[in-house]
Specification:
The chain is α/β, with parallel strands linked by helices. It has helices spanning 14-26, 39-50, 93-104, 121-132, 145-159, 200-211, 213-221, 226-240, 285-306; strands at residues 6-10, 31-35, 60-63, 74-77, 113-116, 139-141, 166-167, 170-171, 179-180, 186-187, 190-191, 245-254, 260-271, 274-278. The N and C termini lie far apart (47 Å).
Length: 308
């Protein structure tokens, strides 16, 4: 019999458990392994999820140590502390980089795909890839997948259409320097910039809402978790089923737009081997400048970690 499709999740906080429940409901994994430094919490969460097995596609859930996850098809890194409403994602850097660097040692030579969710996700994707030595395409950050989903939701609300009918992307950093590609945003084959009533003031208002969404949620409930859980499950499905969808994920770049050794989001073909091919969209001049600025922000953050 073939081995069951198995996913490991490291970190059983709000985000890790939203990833777990979304993954189980999607039916993409037959086995979900949970790990947390708080071993009893991981065991309790596994028990709790198992008790709901009548209500999701057949799968087993259990706690396991990181070394036991080396046989999985994919591992999700959701470990680390969360942010507060008055700090940027990059403020989380030093604390979470140390945690990620230690975890990466367990996955040197790992044959599956690693999905990094912990923030600041771009920097931590770089840290994990460097510390593990895995190929860049097999260490993927969720990157601007969530920002892109937020953008489509806001535009869908503004235009009174389903978010899935909106074709628009956010690239660069998952954070304050992210870039909305307005020049290529479309609705039903029509560029948004040709839409009646559209203008720079609408673009600024929408982009600001998308960029500050996490801060607004954290201010109200203390963390963001549900949407990123759904995003991560969708990314896992794409990997485990080899769907080769084009997604705005973060990975260490290897020449795209002349960039090397910095993880940030560009549209990428994602399949069984990870972010297999990076695509470079047509940038307007202002977008290209903003994207390069975003890369510079991340390079400085990565350099500060490397200097520790």
């Amino acid at each position: 019999m073939p081995s069951p499709v198995s996913v490991g999740i490291i970190g059983t906080g709000w985000v890790g458990m939203s990833v777990a429940i979304s993954t189980l409901h999607s039916g993409i994994a037959q086995e979900v392994l949970l790990y947390d430094q708080r071993e009893a919490v991981a065991e309790g969460e596994a028990m709790d999820l198992s008790h709901g097995s009548s209500f999701y596609p057949a799968a087993t859930v259990r706690s396991a140590a990181p070394h036991a996850m080396r046989a999985t098809n994919a591992v999700v890194i959701a470990a680390g502390r969360g942010g507060t409403s008055d700090e940027s994602r990059l403020d989380l850097l030093r604390d979470n980089a140390s945690i990620i660097r230690d975890l990466a040692q367990h996955f040197v030579g790992y044959e599956g795909v690693v999905v990094v969710v912990s923030n600041p996700v771009d920097v931590l994707t770089s840290v994990f890839q460097g510390a593990s030595g895995l190929p860049p395409e097999r260490v993927i950050g969720t990157g601007t997948m969530l920002d892109t989903a937020r953008l489509r939701q806001v535009l869908g609300r503004e235009m009174n259409v389903a978010p899935r009918s909106v074709h628009a992307q956010v690239v660069g950093e998952h954070g304050d320097s992210e870039v909305v590609l307005w020049s290529s945003a479309m609705l039903g084959g029509t560029r948004l910039r040709n839409w009646p009533g559209w203008g720079p003031e609408v673009e600024k208002r929408v982009a600001d809402e998308v960029r500050t969404a996490a801060y607004e949620i954290i201010q109200r409930k203390g963390a963001t978790n549900h949407a990123i859980g759904l995003v991560t499950a969708a990314l896992l499905r794409c990997i485990l089923r080899g769907e080769r969808r084009i997604l705005t994920v973060s990975r260490v770049q290897d020449g795209a737009m002349g960039m090397y050794d910095v993880a940030l989001s560009l549209p990428s073909i994602v399949g069984a081997h990870g972010a297999e091919q990076v695509l470079v969209p047509d940038f307007a001049d202002a977008e290209r400048t903003a994207f390069k600025h975003s890369a510079d922000v991340l390079r400085r953050a990565i350099a500060s970690v490397d200097a520790d």
